[in-house]
Automatic annotation (TrEMBL), chain B:
Lineage: superkingdom: Bacteria
Pfam families (UniProt xref): AAA_5 (PF07728)
Name assigned to this protein: ATPase associated with various cellular activities AAA_5
Source organism (scientific name): Streptomyces pratensis (strain ATCC 33331 / IAF-45CD)
GO molecular function, one term: ATP hydrolysis activity
PANTHER family: MAGNESIUM-CHELATASE SUBUNIT CHLD, MOXR FAMILY PROTEIN
């Protein structure tokens, strides 16, 4: 394994480890292999001409070492372990408030299972990270080139494809954890964590810490905080190598890791060869894990055996999305608060070591302008020294115990008590004292002089938390906030995709700071400011496209044919910035995205007619696009023709009616598609009617909706050339058996004139009279209730039928049915109930007193029907006599000749006067003044 | 084997404590018998890495940080209040802590509705008062007062069961650290010696019965002990306690691991259903704590030992489970019945093993009870 030259600086260490291995394991074996292998790895990496800079993610120690090294060495080329396709975005970082994440996004996937779509890779970048230092240095120093060398986003998924596990959002790939950041796969520079669960457990246990982040902070971060470059580098290499060697042989994972290393080295050699750069002038920034690689391709002089496969055909979009400490912690499985603690530690390290960090010029969100870069200007680069063994010293020295920083701890203690008080805790100065004391005692129990933030958290919980949490946040959370809190990044306007910029531009008339997080209320008065109507259009589209809460109308509505004159909105575009940015990957304007989405909905393989009609409605409503609406409408026609069930009938009816009403008032002629739709629908539902009447799967409501379609579209369809016979035939073929459908059929027959009301009444009476059928009467009623949809003129009859039910149904049938009637009316008949109630109000007496004398109109029916007949005849005659011209001219046209026969004049008004002379007498009396 | 039915921790583990004291070179606060690290070691047990010559067994199972926070609280100025559901090991932890710190875990006041201030402070031996007058001799110190006088840890069990005025007697004890005896003219203040502290326990299910006053709350640090839901540590606890029990009763009976699994699984299921329940009527009255599990197992073991065939069977376990958990007549039985039909029955068909027998035993027990 060790093929090393004589005179390596690590010879002494090697000897010591060999002796240790012999002592502990009784002879050369695996332990010796591992221990010496680690030294070999370190040695190999240290002697590589192209300087390798191992880092760990979110490690302030790495960041400080990086800043220091960059100032010393001033490399001309920085190679960075980050997906190479993300390079063009990095200059945009200066427009953002960190943390943000660089995102690669592919909504249309090619070469991967459909279920993986959309593919998304994010690389979060925080200020306290080594990679940000490298990026800031490279981008702001003239003549320095930044080269991203890791595999492209497409390769991230390609290399997964071979594995068994799909990289779907719910099923994250092995080496990178997917979580927040919108279901993206996270990539991070310097993922350094034991892969051997037992090793991690062991380290945590003996470090007397709870999380990996805490262990790292305590045992690596703090000791390395002040160390020199060589020590830092060798220790990081050592840790990388240790975790690598003590890893279970997960072949898939190892394969991906090694392929990445091969990829990176191949890319670097390509770049060196192409530009002719001296490797001495370069710096390769990679995770410590990859720094101690053992692949053949490792090094400037490595073998050229790796062939880089071309990326797949998926179209990748790139952008910056806001990130947050909490999102990073969740995605990469770090302890809550650890990234914030790292940020605080970074600030502290900077103060202590006086290292000047790099910061992109004009970096948004910077507390104060960083020292001008020129100030750090080129002190002569330090000449490379021969590597010396710094490891032995580091390993042999006792753990550097951090001194107790009393002032800091006091500050924390006082601050947490204040913040607890603000959050409803009954905390006092006594608690601050107790927290201070307990922190020190706890740290002592855990073998450290200085309480870590985690010790402090435990102490604060012990002393302040009682049995209940009075406010929204508990003490644990308050400590996290105290330690830096969650910092949420923001992508600046200039770094936004065109769509998002366009949205902000178009909403500018609202005069709101929409980039800020939080909910803002927008008031739009379109009468006084007509220009706001365009903002309103944008907001309605956003409401359709973005997650709930991004744009929420409080007042105002938009429906076909309706538009509010005033609207008020709750807007949270800043909070949902990621969603807006991801919309930007789908198109350049929201109209375009909306159109695509509507098309996608309409052309989905399992789209129903109702859904397509919904898309048509949205197209009309939001895009005002006749073209798209017509296209989608035509498609709805096709979908309708292929539908074999009547499940969507109620929805189809509702939507078509709405669209029809809209087109009738807004356009001189109906669009061709809706005419065809009425025609096709008429024929379609006529065909399906007989089966629907007997099909057990179709509900009464659906059949009623079909009938509603047929009856309400009838005039339109017939005018367009449909044949009434279709409908007659359909009814002739319909033989329902189930009572509610039978009732529906009867109602339809009344509508069609095939059945008179008297006959219908007779049938219902027959049902009520027959003791064998009576139990089914409620179901007939249910049919009649549904019949109100297609045949609303039957409302009075339904009132009659219901009243009869109450009057005549025997209690054992009536009582169990009553609750059902109420629940059904409430759930299904919400639209029909008002009709029914209005009709009932008309039929029944309005006052209680009138009830005794009241006779239901249907019982008085024969007399009532006879009277109008006679009266009607009389009226006709009167009219004819009064206006004979019409009849004469018609007769003349028809060539008939004849004369008017004088009819014995019927007493008209005189009859009444004769019957009731009192009025006339009273009038006479008045007139005569008697 | 001692001739006590249940020896307190300091007697039971006397030998371990002696040994730990002999090797302890860490700094000891006040008059503590062990240093905080050794107290932790005593409670959580030793590991190889601790480099001790002998093994110290683990006596309390739970998160290490609870123990550390408790020890640290006792070393500070405040009292310790262990709060949690019944059966989560609060009293056991309190006993271990006081045994390790002051070698006396018997200075206990039991909080009940009938606890009076005398139980916390002192009372008088009436006949001695009549004959000799009020003096130190005729005074009967409470366990708390004794703890103060000896610099030991006093315990107050079920603090929230006693009434608020009685609880508030603790306020001055915890802040001023003395009790004044106004009945006497001289020598009328009992001062606490260094090392004195109070460990109280409170049942979180009793919340709202006698809530602690804010003044008392701030003199206590609260450590909440959650119900153990980690199956592995729960198995450890049940095994540990059962062994102890078998030893105490001198019963030689084997607890098959499969039955232990059945017990743990059934409790896990019942807890899940309790968590999903909407109202109190839909969940068992029992807190389903580890102590309840131990109770069920104990019941089953004793039953099989004395009335059964000296072997623990799934049937006995099921009937003990039903017997221990069915407390309210229609509600609890209905839930258990639903559990047997809805969960155990399909499982016994799928997995077999001890489950069919368990199902049968459970059904029989329910049939007998209802």
């Amino acid at each position: 394994m060790s093929a090393l030259d004589e005179g390596t600086p690590f010879e002494a260490l090697r000897g010591q480890l060999q002796a240790a291995a012999t002592q502990f394991a009784d002879g050369p074996d695996a332990l010796e292999g591992i221990l010496l292998g680690i030294v070999d790895d370190v040695d190999r990496a240290v002697r590589e001409p192209l300087e390798i800079f191992p880092v760990c993610h979110h490690s302030p120690a790495s960041a400080v070492a990086m800043a220091r090294r960059l100032r010393e060495k001033q490399p001309k080329v920085v190679y960075l372990e980050l997906c190479e396709d993300m390079a063009p975005l990095l200059p945009e970082l200066r427009n953002c408030r960190l943390p943000v994440a660089v995102q690669a996004f592919a909504s249309e996937v090619k070469g991967f299972p459909e279920a993986w779509a959309p593919l998304s890779v994010v690389a979060p970048i925080t200020e306290a990270s080594a990679e940000y230092q490298a990026i800031a240095y490279a981008l702001d120093t003239p003549g320095v080139e930044l080269v991203l060398v890791d595999r492209s986003s497409d390769h991230v998924f390609q290399w997964q494809a071979g594995g068994e596990e799909p990289a779907g959002p719910d099923d994250p790939p092995v080496e990178e954890e997917a979580a927040l950041h919108g279901d993206a796969v996270g990539v991070e520079i310097g993922d350094l964590r034991p892969r051997f669960a037992e090793l991690e457990e062991h380290l945590l246990h003996h470090g007397r810490v709870r999380h990996w982040s805490e262990w790292w902070h305590q045992y690596v971060e703090l000791p390395l905080g002040d160390s020199d470059h060589d020590t830092y580098r060798q220790v990081m290499l050592l840790i990388g190598s240790l975790f690598r060697r003590l890893a279970p042989g997960d072949t898939d994972r190892v394969r991906v890791d090694e392929d990445r290393e091969r990829y990176m080295w191949t890319r670097m050699r390509e770049h060196l060869a192409a530009t002719g750069t001296d490797p001495e002038d370069c710096l390769y920034v990679c995770g410590a894990f990859h720094a101690s690689s053992r692949v053949e391709e490792f090094g400037v002089h490595g073998t050229e055996t790796f062939e880089i496969t071309p990326p797949g055909e998926s179209t990748w979009q790139h952008g910056l999305i806001p990130s947050s400490h909490a999102a990073i912690e969740a995605q990469f499985g770090l302890a809550a608060g650890s990234v914030s603690i790292a940020a605080t530690q970074w600030a502290k390290n900077l103060r202590r070591t006086r290292v000047q960090p790099f910061r992109l010029e004009g970096q948004a969100g910077a507390r104060k302008a960083a020292k001008p870069r020129k100030a750090s200007g080129p002190p002569a680069p330090v000449a490379p020294e021969a590597p010396a063994d710094k490891l032995s010293g580091f390993l042999q020295s006792p753990p550097a115990l951090d001194r107790l920083d009393e002032a800091e701890l006091l500050g924390w203690s006082v601050e947490i008590v204040r913040s607890a008080r603000r959050n409803g805790y009954l905390a006092s100065t006594a608690d601050a004292i107790a927290v201070f004391e307990t922190s020190i005692l706890l740290a002592g129990m855990r073998d450290r002089a200085r309480p870590t933030p985690y010790d402090f958290q435990d102490a604060a919980v012990t002393c302040i938390e009682k049995e209940t949490v009075p406010g929204r946040r508990d003490v644990r959370r308050l400590v996290e906030i105290l330690m830096g809190g969650d910092r949420v990044g923001q992508v600046g306007y200039d770094a936004l995709p065109p769509l998002a910029r366009d949205v902000h531009d178009r909403l500018a008339p609202l005069n709101l700071k929409l980039q800020q997080r939080g909910v803002q209320r927008a008031l739009l008065d379109m009468t006084s400011q007509p220009e706001l109507r365009r903002c309103s259009d944008v907001l309605w589209m956003l409401r359709h496209l973005m997650p709930h809460g991004a744009a929420r109308p409080i007042m105002g509505e938009r429906e076909l044919g309706k538009q509010s004159v005033q609207e008020s909105w709750d807007l949270a575009l800043g909070t949902h910035q990621r969603a807006l940015i991801e919309l930007g990957y789908e198109g350049v304007s929201i109209e375009q995205v909306l159109e695509q989405r509507l098309r996608r909905v309409a052309y989905a393989p399992n789209a129903t007619t109702a859904q397509v009609l919904g898309a048509v409605e949205d197209a009309v409503l939001h895009l005002r696009s006749g073209r798209l609406a017509d296209e989608l409408g035509t498609h709805a026609l096709e979908v309708l023709a292929t539908e074999r069930s009547v499940d969507g009938a109620p929805e189809v009816l509702r939507r078509v009616r709405r669209l029809l009403a809209y087109y009738r008032i807004s356009r001189p002629v109906l669009p061709a598609w809706i005419e065809s739709f009425a025609k096709t629908g008429y024929a379609h539902y006529c065909t399906l009617l007989p089966t629907a009447f007997t099909d057990e799967d179709a509900t009464v409501r659906q059949v009623a909706a079909m009938l509603g379609f047929l009856f309400s579209m009838e005039s339109l369809a017939l005018s367009l050339g449909c044949d009434r016979t279709q409908l007659d035939l359909a009814f002739a073929q319909s033989h329902p058996r189930e009572p509610s459908r039978v009732a529906l059929l009867w109602a339809s027959q009344v509508h069609l004139g095939q059945l008179s009301r008297a006959e219908l009444r007779e049938r219902c009476d027959g049902l009520l009279a027959d003791p064998l059928v009576v139990p089914a009467y409620p179901r007939y009623l249910s049919g009649f209730l549904h019949a109100l949809e297609p045949v609303p003129q039957l409302a009075d009859f339904v009132v009659e039928a219901v009243s009869n039910a109450f009057a005549r149904l025997p209690d054992p049938v009536l009582l169990p049915w009553l609750p059902k009637l109420i629940t059904t009316l409430r759930s299904e008949g919400a639209e029909l109930a008002p009709l029914l109630i209005r009709e009932a109000g008309r039929v029944f007496p309005g006052r209680l007193a009138a009830l005794d004398a009241w006779v239901p109109p249907w019982q008085a029916a024969p007399a009532a029907t006879a009277a109008p007949e006679a009266g009607g005849g009389a009226r006709r005659a009167v009219l004819l006599v009064a206006h004979p011209e019409t009849c004469d001219s018609v007769a003349e046209l028809l060539g008939c000749e004849g004369t008017w026969e004088a009819e014995a004049p019927e007493p008209s008004g005189a009859v009444l006067v004769g019957r009731h002379p009192e009025t006339a007498a009273a009038v006479e009396l008045l007139l005569t003044g008697g | 084997m001692s001739d006590l039915l249940r020896a307190p921790a300091e007697i039971k583990y006397a030998e371990e404590l002696d040994w730990l004291e002999s090797v302890d070179d860490g700094p000891k606060p006040f008059s503590w018998r062990l240093s905080p690290k050794m107290v932790r070691l005593f409670i959580l047990g030793s590991e190889r890495a601790d480099g001790l010559d002998r093994e110290i067994s683990q006596k309390w199972y739970g998160d290490r940080s609870f123990v550390e926070r408790s020890i640290v609280t006792l070393a500070s100025d405040r009292g310790l209040l262990l709060i949690g559901d019944p059966g989560t090991g609060k009293s056991w932890l309190a006993e271990l802590l006081s045994a390790a710190i002051s070698r006396n875990s018997t200075l206990v006041v039991q909080g009940t509705a009938g606890t009076t201030e005398d139980h916390i402070k002192y009372s008088w031996n009436v006949s001695m008062v009549i004959s000799k007058g009020q003096s130190r001799e005729s005074m009967i110190p409470s366990p708390i007062m004794t703890a103060m006088e000896t610099g030991a840890v006093g315990r107050f069990e079920e603090l929230t069961r006693s009434t608020s005025d009685v609880q508030d007697a603790l306020i001055s004890i915890l802040s001023e650290k003395y009790i004044s005896v106004p009945e006497m003219d001289s020598d009328n203040i009992v001062f606490a010696k260094p090392g004195f502290s109070v460990i109280a326990t409170a049942n979180s299910r009793d919340r709202g019965v006698n809530d602690l006053s804010s003044a008392l709350k701030r003199r206590f640090n609260f450590v909440r002990i959650p119900v153990v839901t980690n199956k592995k540590s729960e198995a450890e606890i049940v095994r540990f306690r059962t062994e102890e029990l078998l030893k105490r009763h001198r019963i030689e009976l084997d607890v098959p691991p499969t039955l232990l699994d059945v017990l743990l699984q059934s409790f896990a299921d019942l807890r899940a259903s309790a968590a999903a329940a909407g109202s109190d009527d839909e969940k068992l009255e029992s807190a389903l704590s580890s102590a309840e599990q131990i109770g069920v197992l104990e019941d089953a073991i004793l039953h099989s030992n004395f009335f059964g065939e000296r072997a623990l069977t799934a049937r006995t376990l099921a009937s003990s489970l039903v017997g221990s958990l069915a407390r309210r007549e229609p509600e609890d039985l209905a839930i258990l019945n639903k559990y047997l039909h809805g969960v155990v029955e399909p499982r016994s068909k799928e997995e077999g093993g001890s489950w069919p027998e368990f199902l049968e035993g459970g059904r029989d027990a329910i049939a007998t009870l209802s």
